[in-house]
Here is the input.
Amino acid sequence: MKNRTTWWLLVACLFSPAAPGAETQAKLYFKLAAGRAETRHVALASRGGVQSLRVAKGNIPPGTRSIEVHHPIATARAGEEGFYVFCNGMYGTFQERPSGSYRNPHQVMDAFGVRTPRGAMTVIVTGLRYEACQMVDLRDGVYRVYPRFELNGEAPYDDLAIEFHLLDGERATYSDMARTYRRFQLGRKVVRPLKERVRDNRELAYAAGAMMVRVRMGWKPVPSPAPEQNAENEPPMKVAVSFERFGRIVDEFKKQGIDRAEFCLVGWNIGGHDGRYPQIFPVDARLGGEAKLREAISKAQAAGYQVVCHTNYSDAYRASQIGGLWDEGYLLRAKGGSIVKGGQWGGGTMYQACPKCMYERFSKGDFAKIRDLGFRGLHYIDVYSTVNPRACYAPGHPLTKEGFAEWTRRIAADAQKAFGGFASEGGFDYVVSNLDYGLYVSFHVPGAKTPALIDRHVPFWHLVYNGIVLNNPYTSTTNYTVKDPTARLKLVEFGGRPMFYFYSKFRDAGTNWMGDRDLTCTTDEELAESVCMVKRGYEEFEKLKRLQLEFMESHGPLADDVFKTTFSDGTSIITNYRAAPYEYGSRAVPSMGYVVVKD
Ligand SMILES: [Zn+2]
Here is the structure.
Protein backbone atom coordinates (compact mmCIF):
# COMPACT_ATOMS: atom_id res chain seq x y z
CA MET A 1 0.00 0.00 0.00
CA LYS A 2 2.83 2.32 0.89
CA ASN A 3 4.44 1.77 -2.51
CA ARG A 4 1.19 2.50 -4.22
CA THR A 5 0.79 5.77 -2.30
CA THR A 6 4.32 6.80 -3.19
CA TRP A 7 3.66 6.04 -6.86
CA TRP A 8 0.50 8.11 -6.87
CA LEU A 9 2.28 10.99 -5.16
CA LEU A 10 4.95 10.84 -7.81
CA VAL A 11 2.42 10.76 -10.62
CA ALA A 12 0.35 13.53 -9.01
CA CYS A 13 3.46 15.65 -8.89
CA LEU A 14 4.31 14.91 -12.52
CA PHE A 15 0.85 15.74 -13.74
CA SER A 16 -0.21 18.56 -11.42
CA PRO A 17 -0.98 21.85 -13.10
CA ALA A 18 1.58 24.59 -12.61
CA ALA A 19 0.78 27.08 -9.86
CA PRO A 20 -0.70 30.35 -11.16
CA GLY A 21 2.03 32.70 -12.22
CA ALA A 22 4.64 29.97 -12.25
CA GLU A 23 6.65 29.81 -15.41
CA THR A 24 6.06 26.91 -17.76
CA GLN A 25 9.02 24.94 -18.94
CA ALA A 26 9.27 22.71 -21.95
CA LYS A 27 11.51 19.70 -21.76
CA LEU A 28 13.72 19.19 -24.80
CA TYR A 29 15.33 15.85 -25.57
CA PHE A 30 18.27 16.15 -27.93
CA LYS A 31 19.43 13.01 -29.64
CA LEU A 32 22.99 13.82 -30.62
CA ALA A 33 25.65 12.24 -32.77
CA ALA A 34 27.28 8.97 -31.71
CA GLY A 35 24.33 7.89 -29.58
CA ARG A 36 24.71 10.72 -27.06
CA ALA A 37 21.73 12.54 -25.61
CA GLU A 38 21.00 15.76 -23.76
CA THR A 39 17.98 17.06 -21.87
CA ARG A 40 17.26 20.76 -21.49
CA HIS A 41 14.51 22.55 -19.59
CA VAL A 42 13.60 25.75 -21.35
CA ALA A 43 11.29 28.42 -19.90
CA LEU A 44 8.53 29.46 -22.29
CA ALA A 45 7.87 33.11 -22.99
CA SER A 46 4.22 33.91 -22.37
CA ARG A 47 2.04 36.62 -23.86
CA GLY A 48 -1.72 36.87 -24.19
CA GLY A 49 -2.49 33.18 -23.93
CA VAL A 50 0.37 32.16 -26.20
CA GLN A 51 3.50 30.54 -24.89
CA SER A 52 6.47 30.43 -27.18
CA LEU A 53 9.72 28.61 -27.44
CA ARG A 54 12.74 29.52 -29.50
CA VAL A 55 16.05 27.70 -29.71
CA ALA A 56 18.55 29.66 -31.77
CA LYS A 57 20.11 27.54 -34.47
CA GLY A 58 23.51 28.31 -32.95
CA ASN A 59 22.36 26.59 -29.77
CA ILE A 60 21.58 23.34 -31.53
CA PRO A 61 24.66 21.12 -31.19
CA PRO A 62 26.30 20.17 -34.50
CA GLY A 63 25.31 16.71 -35.67
CA THR A 64 22.00 16.67 -33.74
CA ARG A 65 19.84 13.79 -34.94
CA SER A 66 16.52 14.89 -33.46
CA ILE A 67 14.93 17.15 -30.87
CA GLU A 68 11.72 16.27 -29.04
CA VAL A 69 9.80 19.12 -27.40
CA HIS A 70 7.57 18.10 -24.50
CA HIS A 71 5.09 20.60 -23.06
CA PRO A 72 3.66 19.79 -19.61
CA ILE A 73 0.09 19.95 -20.96
CA ALA A 74 0.76 17.29 -23.57
CA THR A 75 1.31 14.30 -21.29
CA ALA A 76 -1.49 12.10 -20.00
CA ARG A 77 -2.01 8.85 -18.18
CA ALA A 78 -3.90 6.16 -20.04
CA GLY A 79 -7.53 6.43 -18.97
CA GLU A 80 -7.50 10.20 -18.55
CA GLU A 81 -9.88 12.54 -20.34
CA GLY A 82 -8.72 14.32 -23.45
CA PHE A 83 -7.51 13.79 -26.98
CA TYR A 84 -4.94 14.70 -29.58
CA VAL A 85 -5.48 15.64 -33.19
CA PHE A 86 -2.82 15.82 -35.87
CA CYS A 87 -2.82 18.00 -38.95
CA ASN A 88 -3.58 15.03 -41.21
CA GLY A 89 -6.87 14.49 -39.36
CA MET A 90 -5.74 11.54 -37.23
CA TYR A 91 -7.47 11.75 -33.85
CA GLY A 92 -6.92 9.72 -30.71
CA THR A 93 -7.98 9.58 -27.07
CA PHE A 94 -6.01 8.57 -24.00
CA GLN A 95 -7.72 5.23 -23.69
CA GLU A 96 -6.10 2.18 -22.14
CA ARG A 97 -4.49 0.11 -24.88
CA PRO A 98 -1.23 -1.62 -25.75
CA SER A 99 1.89 0.52 -25.89
CA GLY A 100 2.77 1.94 -29.26
CA SER A 101 3.64 5.05 -31.15
CA TYR A 102 2.39 7.03 -34.11
CA ARG A 103 4.41 9.38 -36.27
CA ASN A 104 2.28 11.47 -38.61
CA PRO A 105 3.75 10.80 -42.05
CA HIS A 106 1.75 13.55 -43.75
CA GLN A 107 2.71 16.92 -42.25
CA VAL A 108 0.11 18.76 -44.26
CA MET A 109 -0.03 21.67 -41.77
CA ASP A 110 2.33 23.08 -39.17
CA ALA A 111 -0.23 22.69 -36.40
CA PHE A 112 -1.75 20.04 -34.15
CA GLY A 113 -3.87 20.03 -31.02
CA VAL A 114 -3.96 18.32 -27.65
CA ARG A 115 -6.18 18.44 -24.56
CA THR A 116 -5.44 16.76 -21.26
CA PRO A 117 -6.72 17.41 -17.72
CA ARG A 118 -3.82 19.89 -17.49
CA GLY A 119 -4.98 22.11 -20.34
CA ALA A 120 -5.55 22.38 -24.05
CA MET A 121 -3.64 24.02 -26.85
CA THR A 122 -2.99 24.36 -30.53
CA VAL A 123 0.70 23.82 -31.16
CA ILE A 124 2.07 25.75 -34.13
CA VAL A 125 5.58 25.17 -35.39
CA THR A 126 7.00 28.39 -36.81
CA GLY A 127 10.70 27.61 -37.09
CA LEU A 128 12.32 24.50 -38.64
CA ARG A 129 8.79 23.65 -39.70
CA TYR A 130 9.75 21.15 -42.39
CA GLU A 131 11.75 19.10 -39.92
CA ALA A 132 8.92 18.85 -37.39
CA CYS A 133 7.05 15.54 -37.16
CA GLN A 134 3.93 15.25 -35.06
CA MET A 135 4.18 12.31 -32.67
CA VAL A 136 2.30 10.45 -29.97
CA ASP A 137 3.59 7.53 -27.99
CA LEU A 138 2.24 5.40 -25.18
CA ARG A 139 4.71 3.73 -22.84
CA ASP A 140 4.19 2.40 -19.33
CA GLY A 141 0.67 3.80 -19.28
CA VAL A 142 1.75 7.34 -20.17
CA TYR A 143 0.87 9.15 -23.38
CA ARG A 144 3.17 11.87 -24.70
CA VAL A 145 2.17 14.12 -27.61
CA TYR A 146 4.96 16.20 -29.08
CA PRO A 147 6.74 17.52 -32.13
CA ARG A 148 10.02 15.86 -33.01
CA PHE A 149 12.42 17.84 -35.16
CA GLU A 150 14.24 15.34 -37.31
CA LEU A 151 17.49 16.98 -38.33
CA ASN A 152 19.34 13.73 -39.05
CA GLY A 153 22.67 15.44 -38.51
CA GLU A 154 21.96 18.32 -40.90
CA ALA A 155 22.91 21.84 -39.85
CA PRO A 156 19.67 23.72 -39.06
CA TYR A 157 18.92 26.58 -41.47
CA ASP A 158 16.54 28.28 -39.05
CA ASP A 159 15.85 28.63 -35.33
CA LEU A 160 13.57 26.02 -33.82
CA ALA A 161 10.40 27.90 -32.88
CA ILE A 162 7.01 26.85 -31.56
CA GLU A 163 3.93 28.71 -30.38
CA PHE A 164 1.60 27.04 -27.89
CA HIS A 165 -1.82 28.70 -28.17
CA LEU A 166 -3.59 27.90 -24.92
CA LEU A 167 -7.29 27.05 -25.04
CA ASP A 168 -10.05 26.25 -22.56
CA GLY A 169 -8.73 23.13 -20.87
CA GLU A 170 -12.18 21.77 -20.08
CA ARG A 171 -14.10 22.48 -23.22
CA ALA A 172 -11.72 22.92 -26.15
CA THR A 173 -12.60 20.72 -29.12
CA TYR A 174 -10.58 19.92 -32.20
CA SER A 175 -12.76 22.48 -33.99
CA ASP A 176 -11.53 25.14 -31.55
CA MET A 177 -7.97 24.04 -32.19
CA ALA A 178 -8.41 24.21 -35.96
CA ARG A 179 -10.09 27.62 -35.77
CA THR A 180 -7.15 28.89 -33.73
CA TYR A 181 -4.79 27.89 -36.51
CA ARG A 182 -7.10 29.35 -39.16
CA ARG A 183 -7.11 32.69 -37.32
CA PHE A 184 -3.33 32.49 -37.10
CA GLN A 185 -3.00 31.88 -40.84
CA LEU A 186 -5.50 34.61 -41.73
CA GLY A 187 -3.97 36.99 -39.19
CA ARG A 188 -0.47 36.73 -40.60
CA LYS A 189 -1.96 37.02 -44.10
CA VAL A 190 -0.61 33.71 -45.35
CA VAL A 191 -4.08 33.00 -46.75
CA ARG A 192 -7.22 34.94 -47.66
CA PRO A 193 -10.80 33.66 -47.65
CA LEU A 194 -12.22 32.50 -50.98
CA LYS A 195 -15.14 34.88 -50.44
CA GLU A 196 -12.73 37.79 -50.81
CA ARG A 197 -10.60 36.27 -53.52
CA VAL A 198 -13.45 35.33 -55.87
CA ARG A 199 -14.53 38.98 -56.10
CA ASP A 200 -11.79 39.91 -58.53
CA ASN A 201 -11.03 36.47 -59.96
CA ARG A 202 -13.50 35.15 -62.52
CA GLU A 203 -11.78 31.78 -62.94
CA LEU A 204 -11.65 31.13 -59.21
CA ALA A 205 -15.27 32.21 -58.79
CA TYR A 206 -16.29 29.74 -61.49
CA ALA A 207 -14.22 26.91 -60.00
CA ALA A 208 -15.71 27.42 -56.54
CA GLY A 209 -19.13 26.60 -57.93
CA ALA A 210 -18.11 23.82 -60.30
CA MET A 211 -17.10 20.18 -59.91
CA MET A 212 -13.63 19.14 -61.01
CA VAL A 213 -13.75 16.65 -63.89
CA ARG A 214 -10.41 15.16 -64.86
CA VAL A 215 -9.99 13.35 -68.15
CA ARG A 216 -6.94 11.14 -68.65
CA MET A 217 -6.37 11.17 -72.38
CA GLY A 218 -3.27 9.14 -73.05
CA TRP A 219 -0.50 7.26 -71.29
CA LYS A 220 2.34 4.86 -71.86
CA PRO A 221 2.38 1.56 -69.91
CA VAL A 222 2.87 1.81 -66.13
CA PRO A 223 5.14 0.36 -64.86
CA SER A 224 7.27 1.06 -67.89
CA PRO A 225 8.84 -1.76 -69.95
CA ALA A 226 11.58 0.78 -70.82
CA PRO A 227 12.77 2.51 -67.62
CA GLU A 228 15.24 4.77 -69.44
CA GLN A 229 13.51 5.86 -72.62
CA ASN A 230 14.91 7.22 -75.85
CA ALA A 231 13.61 7.65 -79.40
CA GLU A 232 14.23 3.96 -80.17
CA ASN A 233 12.67 2.28 -77.16
CA GLU A 234 9.89 4.67 -76.11
CA PRO A 235 6.78 2.51 -75.63
CA PRO A 236 3.62 3.33 -77.59
CA MET A 237 1.02 5.55 -75.94
CA LYS A 238 -2.50 4.32 -75.30
CA VAL A 239 -5.07 6.81 -76.53
CA ALA A 240 -8.08 6.69 -74.22
CA VAL A 241 -9.71 10.04 -75.02
CA SER A 242 -8.66 11.99 -78.11
CA PHE A 243 -9.31 15.73 -78.29
CA GLU A 244 -12.21 14.99 -80.57
CA ARG A 245 -13.59 12.44 -78.13
CA PHE A 246 -13.29 15.03 -75.37
CA GLY A 247 -15.61 17.16 -77.50
CA ARG A 248 -18.13 14.30 -77.28
CA ILE A 249 -17.83 14.34 -73.48
CA VAL A 250 -18.67 18.04 -73.61
CA ASP A 251 -21.68 17.31 -75.84
CA GLU A 252 -22.90 14.62 -73.47
CA PHE A 253 -22.52 16.93 -70.46
CA LYS A 254 -24.68 19.51 -72.23
CA LYS A 255 -27.18 16.92 -73.35
CA GLN A 256 -27.64 15.60 -69.83
CA GLY A 257 -28.01 19.09 -68.38
CA ILE A 258 -24.71 19.60 -66.57
CA ASP A 259 -24.11 23.32 -66.91
CA ARG A 260 -20.97 23.84 -64.86
CA ALA A 261 -17.75 21.88 -64.59
CA GLU A 262 -14.05 22.57 -64.58
CA PHE A 263 -12.38 20.04 -66.87
CA CYS A 264 -8.74 19.20 -66.34
CA LEU A 265 -7.07 17.48 -69.29
CA VAL A 266 -4.47 14.97 -68.11
CA GLY A 267 -1.88 13.52 -70.49
CA TRP A 268 -2.65 15.93 -73.35
CA ASN A 269 1.06 16.63 -73.65
CA ILE A 270 3.67 14.70 -75.63
CA GLY A 271 3.80 11.07 -74.51
CA GLY A 272 0.63 11.37 -72.43
CA HIS A 273 0.39 11.32 -68.64
CA ASP A 274 3.89 11.49 -67.08
CA GLY A 275 5.17 10.93 -70.61
CA ARG A 276 8.33 13.01 -70.95
CA TYR A 277 8.46 15.76 -68.31
CA PRO A 278 9.86 18.38 -68.40
CA GLN A 279 9.09 18.09 -72.10
CA ILE A 280 5.43 19.01 -72.61
CA PHE A 281 5.33 20.16 -76.21
CA PRO A 282 4.39 19.43 -78.89
CA VAL A 283 0.79 18.60 -78.02
CA ASP A 284 0.58 14.86 -78.73
CA ALA A 285 -0.39 14.23 -82.35
CA ARG A 286 -1.88 10.84 -81.48
CA LEU A 287 -4.58 12.68 -79.53
CA GLY A 288 -5.22 14.96 -82.50
CA GLY A 289 -2.44 17.53 -82.22
CA GLU A 290 -2.49 21.19 -81.33
CA ALA A 291 -5.17 22.39 -83.73
CA LYS A 292 -7.65 19.79 -82.45
CA LEU A 293 -6.78 20.62 -78.85
CA ARG A 294 -7.46 24.31 -79.46
CA GLU A 295 -10.79 23.40 -81.02
CA ALA A 296 -11.70 21.16 -78.09
CA ILE A 297 -10.87 23.86 -75.53
CA SER A 298 -12.86 26.48 -77.45
CA LYS A 299 -15.79 24.12 -77.79
CA ALA A 300 -15.89 23.39 -74.06
CA GLN A 301 -15.57 27.06 -73.18
CA ALA A 302 -18.31 28.02 -75.62
CA ALA A 303 -20.51 25.44 -73.91
CA GLY A 304 -19.91 27.23 -70.60
CA TYR A 305 -17.20 25.07 -69.05
CA GLN A 306 -13.79 25.96 -67.70
CA VAL A 307 -10.84 23.95 -69.04
CA VAL A 308 -7.41 23.56 -67.45
CA CYS A 309 -4.62 21.06 -67.85
CA HIS A 310 -2.24 18.91 -65.84
CA THR A 311 1.52 19.49 -65.84
CA ASN A 312 4.42 18.61 -63.56
CA TYR A 313 7.70 20.26 -62.48
CA SER A 314 8.84 18.03 -59.65
CA ASP A 315 9.42 14.95 -61.80
CA ALA A 316 11.74 14.51 -64.78
CA TYR A 317 12.13 11.57 -67.16
CA ARG A 318 15.04 10.59 -69.34
CA ALA A 319 12.42 10.29 -72.11
CA SER A 320 12.66 14.09 -72.36
CA GLN A 321 15.93 13.53 -74.24
CA ILE A 322 13.75 12.71 -77.26
CA GLY A 323 12.81 16.38 -77.33
CA GLY A 324 16.33 17.49 -76.40
CA LEU A 325 15.30 18.58 -72.89
CA TRP A 326 17.00 16.00 -70.66
CA ASP A 327 19.74 17.51 -68.55
CA GLU A 328 21.02 16.08 -65.28
CA GLY A 329 21.96 19.66 -64.43
CA TYR A 330 18.38 20.52 -63.42
CA LEU A 331 17.87 17.51 -61.20
CA LEU A 332 17.60 17.73 -57.46
CA ARG A 333 20.62 16.25 -55.71
CA ALA A 334 20.66 14.40 -52.43
CA LYS A 335 23.36 14.95 -49.84
CA GLY A 336 26.54 13.58 -51.35
CA GLY A 337 25.46 14.62 -54.83
CA SER A 338 23.44 11.64 -56.03
CA ILE A 339 20.33 12.14 -58.13
CA VAL A 340 17.05 11.03 -56.57
CA LYS A 341 14.94 8.42 -58.32
CA GLY A 342 11.22 8.04 -57.73
CA GLY A 343 8.86 5.35 -58.99
CA GLN A 344 8.23 3.99 -62.44
CA TRP A 345 5.67 5.92 -64.45
CA GLY A 346 4.76 6.35 -68.10
CA GLY A 347 8.02 8.11 -68.90
CA GLY A 348 10.04 5.39 -67.17
CA THR A 349 12.14 6.05 -64.08
CA MET A 350 11.16 9.31 -62.44
CA TYR A 351 13.90 11.64 -61.23
CA GLN A 352 13.25 14.47 -58.79
CA ALA A 353 13.81 17.92 -60.28
CA CYS A 354 14.94 21.11 -58.54
CA PRO A 355 12.17 23.77 -58.49
CA LYS A 356 14.67 26.62 -58.88
CA CYS A 357 15.89 25.09 -62.16
CA MET A 358 12.36 24.31 -63.28
CA TYR A 359 11.36 27.90 -62.63
CA GLU A 360 14.35 29.35 -64.42
CA ARG A 361 14.25 27.03 -67.40
CA PHE A 362 10.70 25.85 -68.01
CA SER A 363 7.65 27.05 -66.13
CA LYS A 364 7.47 30.64 -67.39
CA GLY A 365 7.81 29.67 -71.03
CA ASP A 366 5.45 26.72 -70.65
CA PHE A 367 2.77 28.84 -69.00
CA ALA A 368 2.82 31.35 -71.86
CA LYS A 369 2.39 28.55 -74.40
CA ILE A 370 -0.26 26.71 -72.38
CA ARG A 371 -2.18 29.93 -71.89
CA ASP A 372 -1.98 30.57 -75.61
CA LEU A 373 -3.69 27.22 -76.24
CA GLY A 374 -6.68 28.68 -74.43
CA PHE A 375 -6.56 26.99 -71.01
CA ARG A 376 -7.96 29.13 -68.16
CA GLY A 377 -8.84 28.20 -64.59
CA LEU A 378 -7.04 26.47 -61.72
CA HIS A 379 -3.97 25.22 -63.55
CA TYR A 380 -2.89 21.86 -62.13
CA ILE A 381 0.73 21.08 -61.30
CA ASP A 382 1.16 17.58 -59.92
CA VAL A 383 2.85 16.50 -56.67
CA TYR A 384 4.01 19.80 -55.11
CA SER A 385 1.27 20.30 -52.51
CA THR A 386 1.27 16.67 -51.41
CA VAL A 387 4.91 16.39 -50.35
CA ASN A 388 7.13 18.07 -47.81
CA PRO A 389 9.69 20.46 -49.36
CA ARG A 390 12.96 18.73 -50.24
CA ALA A 391 16.49 20.05 -49.84
CA CYS A 392 18.69 20.19 -52.94
CA TYR A 393 22.45 19.68 -52.65
CA ALA A 394 23.41 20.37 -56.26
CA PRO A 395 26.55 22.54 -56.09
CA GLY A 396 25.21 24.93 -58.73
CA HIS A 397 21.73 25.37 -57.23
CA PRO A 398 21.60 24.30 -53.58
CA LEU A 399 18.31 24.80 -51.74
CA THR A 400 17.27 24.36 -48.16
CA LYS A 401 13.75 23.05 -47.69
CA GLU A 402 12.69 26.66 -47.21
CA GLY A 403 14.35 27.48 -50.53
CA PHE A 404 12.48 24.63 -52.20
CA ALA A 405 9.26 26.05 -50.76
CA GLU A 406 10.03 29.56 -52.03
CA TRP A 407 10.73 28.48 -55.62
CA THR A 408 7.66 26.27 -55.65
CA ARG A 409 5.55 29.22 -54.51
CA ARG A 410 7.00 31.29 -57.35
CA ILE A 411 5.89 28.67 -59.86
CA ALA A 412 2.46 28.57 -58.19
CA ALA A 413 2.18 32.36 -58.20
CA ASP A 414 3.01 32.45 -61.91
CA ALA A 415 0.32 29.84 -62.57
CA GLN A 416 -2.21 31.96 -60.67
CA LYS A 417 -1.24 34.96 -62.74
CA ALA A 418 -1.33 33.13 -66.06
CA PHE A 419 -4.49 31.07 -65.62
CA GLY A 420 -6.46 32.46 -62.68
CA GLY A 421 -5.51 29.81 -60.17
CA PHE A 422 -3.15 27.10 -59.01
CA ALA A 423 -4.16 23.54 -58.18
CA SER A 424 -2.00 20.69 -57.00
CA GLU A 425 -2.21 17.22 -55.54
CA GLY A 426 -2.71 17.91 -51.82
CA GLY A 427 -3.03 20.57 -49.16
CA PHE A 428 0.47 21.15 -47.78
CA ASP A 429 0.99 24.36 -45.88
CA TYR A 430 4.23 25.52 -47.46
CA VAL A 431 2.40 26.38 -50.66
CA VAL A 432 -1.05 27.16 -49.21
CA SER A 433 -0.50 30.89 -49.74
CA ASN A 434 -0.83 30.23 -53.48
CA LEU A 435 -3.04 27.15 -53.49
CA ASP A 436 -6.59 27.32 -54.85
CA TYR A 437 -7.41 23.62 -55.03
CA GLY A 438 -6.07 20.42 -53.50
CA LEU A 439 -6.87 17.26 -55.47
CA TYR A 440 -6.85 15.00 -52.43
CA VAL A 441 -6.18 16.18 -48.93
CA SER A 442 -5.84 12.67 -47.50
CA PHE A 443 -4.81 9.22 -48.71
CA HIS A 444 -6.53 7.60 -45.74
CA VAL A 445 -9.40 5.36 -46.80
CA PRO A 446 -12.48 6.02 -44.63
CA GLY A 447 -13.52 2.83 -42.91
CA ALA A 448 -10.04 1.31 -43.22
CA LYS A 449 -8.12 0.35 -40.10
CA THR A 450 -6.56 3.38 -38.42
CA PRO A 451 -2.90 3.34 -37.34
CA ALA A 452 -1.78 2.55 -33.79
CA LEU A 453 -3.04 5.03 -31.16
CA ILE A 454 -5.49 6.57 -33.64
CA ASP A 455 -9.26 6.29 -33.05
CA ARG A 456 -10.68 7.97 -36.13
CA HIS A 457 -10.08 10.44 -38.94
CA VAL A 458 -11.56 13.95 -38.58
CA PRO A 459 -11.72 16.99 -40.91
CA PHE A 460 -9.04 18.96 -39.05
CA TRP A 461 -7.51 20.39 -42.27
CA HIS A 462 -11.00 21.26 -43.53
CA LEU A 463 -11.89 23.11 -40.33
CA VAL A 464 -8.85 25.26 -41.05
CA TYR A 465 -9.10 25.65 -44.82
CA ASN A 466 -12.68 25.13 -46.02
CA GLY A 467 -13.63 28.52 -47.45
CA ILE A 468 -9.96 29.20 -48.21
CA VAL A 469 -8.75 26.33 -50.43
CA LEU A 470 -11.08 24.25 -52.61
CA ASN A 471 -10.49 20.55 -52.12
CA ASN A 472 -11.49 16.96 -52.47
CA PRO A 473 -11.04 15.23 -49.10
CA TYR A 474 -9.91 11.72 -50.01
CA THR A 475 -8.49 9.74 -52.91
CA SER A 476 -11.40 7.36 -52.34
CA THR A 477 -14.00 10.10 -52.88
CA THR A 478 -12.91 10.31 -56.53
CA ASN A 479 -15.92 9.39 -58.70
CA TYR A 480 -17.95 9.11 -55.51
CA THR A 481 -21.24 8.41 -57.26
CA VAL A 482 -19.94 5.04 -58.48
CA LYS A 483 -18.43 4.17 -55.09
CA ASP A 484 -20.00 2.84 -51.91
CA PRO A 485 -22.27 5.20 -49.93
CA THR A 486 -19.48 5.96 -47.44
CA ALA A 487 -17.57 7.88 -50.12
CA ARG A 488 -20.59 10.09 -50.75
CA LEU A 489 -21.21 10.75 -47.07
CA LYS A 490 -17.55 11.53 -46.39
CA LEU A 491 -17.40 13.98 -49.29
CA VAL A 492 -20.42 15.83 -47.92
CA GLU A 493 -19.40 15.58 -44.26
CA PHE A 494 -15.95 17.03 -45.09
CA GLY A 495 -17.35 19.81 -47.32
CA GLY A 496 -15.64 18.52 -50.46
CA ARG A 497 -15.79 19.86 -53.97
CA PRO A 498 -16.74 16.77 -56.03
CA MET A 499 -14.00 15.36 -58.25
CA PHE A 500 -14.70 13.01 -61.14
CA TYR A 501 -12.06 11.27 -63.17
CA PHE A 502 -12.41 9.58 -66.55
CA TYR A 503 -9.82 6.78 -66.57
CA SER A 504 -8.63 7.28 -63.00
CA LYS A 505 -7.18 3.75 -63.36
CA PHE A 506 -4.18 3.54 -65.63
CA ARG A 507 -1.59 1.30 -64.05
CA ASP A 508 -1.08 -2.20 -65.42
CA ALA A 509 0.15 -3.44 -62.04
CA GLY A 510 -0.14 -2.23 -58.48
CA THR A 511 -2.94 -0.55 -56.65
CA ASN A 512 -5.41 1.96 -58.01
CA TRP A 513 -5.26 4.59 -55.30
CA MET A 514 -8.49 6.22 -56.42
CA GLY A 515 -10.36 2.93 -56.18
CA ASP A 516 -11.31 0.18 -58.60
CA ARG A 517 -14.54 1.61 -59.96
CA ASP A 518 -14.07 4.12 -62.72
CA LEU A 519 -15.62 6.36 -65.36
CA THR A 520 -14.88 5.37 -68.95
CA CYS A 521 -16.08 6.49 -72.36
CA THR A 522 -14.81 3.96 -74.89
CA THR A 523 -18.27 3.58 -76.42
CA ASP A 524 -21.15 6.04 -76.58
CA GLU A 525 -23.08 3.85 -74.15
CA GLU A 526 -20.22 3.98 -71.66
CA LEU A 527 -19.98 7.73 -72.15
CA ALA A 528 -23.69 8.28 -71.51
CA GLU A 529 -23.56 6.05 -68.44
CA SER A 530 -20.47 7.79 -67.05
CA VAL A 531 -21.91 11.27 -67.59
CA CYS A 532 -25.10 10.10 -65.90
CA MET A 533 -23.02 9.32 -62.80
CA VAL A 534 -21.36 12.75 -63.00
CA LYS A 535 -24.81 14.32 -63.29
CA ARG A 536 -25.75 12.86 -59.91
CA GLY A 537 -22.75 14.64 -58.43
CA TYR A 538 -23.69 17.84 -60.23
CA GLU A 539 -27.22 17.83 -58.84
CA GLU A 540 -25.99 17.15 -55.34
CA PHE A 541 -23.30 19.84 -55.53
CA GLU A 542 -25.72 22.46 -56.86
CA LYS A 543 -27.48 22.28 -53.49
CA LEU A 544 -24.27 22.45 -51.46
CA LYS A 545 -21.84 24.53 -53.50
CA ARG A 546 -22.47 27.74 -51.58
CA LEU A 547 -20.65 26.10 -48.65
CA GLN A 548 -17.38 26.16 -50.60
CA LEU A 549 -17.12 29.85 -49.69
CA GLU A 550 -17.90 29.34 -46.01
CA PHE A 551 -15.58 28.33 -43.21
CA MET A 552 -16.25 24.98 -41.59
CA GLU A 553 -16.80 26.17 -38.03
CA SER A 554 -17.32 22.94 -36.17
CA HIS A 555 -17.46 19.21 -36.57
CA GLY A 556 -18.11 16.43 -34.12
CA PRO A 557 -20.07 13.30 -33.33
CA LEU A 558 -23.71 13.58 -32.22
CA ALA A 559 -23.76 9.86 -31.44
CA ASP A 560 -21.86 6.80 -32.58
CA ASP A 561 -21.54 7.01 -36.37
CA VAL A 562 -23.51 10.26 -36.63
CA PHE A 563 -21.69 13.54 -37.26
CA LYS A 564 -22.59 17.19 -37.46
CA THR A 565 -20.65 19.64 -39.60
CA THR A 566 -21.49 23.33 -39.21
CA PHE A 567 -20.49 26.09 -41.61
CA SER A 568 -20.08 29.83 -41.08
CA ASP A 569 -23.42 30.68 -42.72
CA GLY A 570 -25.21 28.63 -40.05
CA THR A 571 -25.81 25.61 -42.29
CA SER A 572 -25.29 22.23 -40.65
CA ILE A 573 -25.03 18.85 -42.31
CA ILE A 574 -25.93 15.77 -40.29
CA THR A 575 -24.38 12.60 -41.71
CA ASN A 576 -25.61 9.21 -40.54
CA TYR A 577 -23.42 6.13 -41.07
CA ARG A 578 -25.77 3.87 -39.10
CA ALA A 579 -27.85 1.02 -40.46
CA ALA A 580 -30.97 2.74 -39.06
CA PRO A 581 -32.35 6.30 -39.40
CA TYR A 582 -31.26 8.88 -36.81
CA GLU A 583 -33.68 11.41 -35.34
CA TYR A 584 -32.31 14.95 -35.44
CA GLY A 585 -34.93 17.28 -33.97
CA SER A 586 -37.97 16.84 -36.16
CA ARG A 587 -35.88 15.42 -39.01
CA ALA A 588 -35.09 11.79 -39.69
CA VAL A 589 -31.61 11.38 -41.12
CA PRO A 590 -31.76 8.28 -43.33
CA SER A 591 -29.34 5.43 -42.88
CA MET A 592 -26.19 6.15 -44.91
CA GLY A 593 -27.66 9.54 -45.76
CA TYR A 594 -27.61 13.14 -44.60
CA VAL A 595 -29.81 16.17 -44.03
CA VAL A 596 -28.95 19.84 -44.44
CA VAL A 597 -30.39 22.08 -41.73
CA LYS A 598 -30.22 25.66 -40.57
CA ASP A 599 -30.56 25.65 -36.80
ZN1 LIG B 1 18.71 22.67 -56.81
Notes: The longest strand covers residues 119-127.
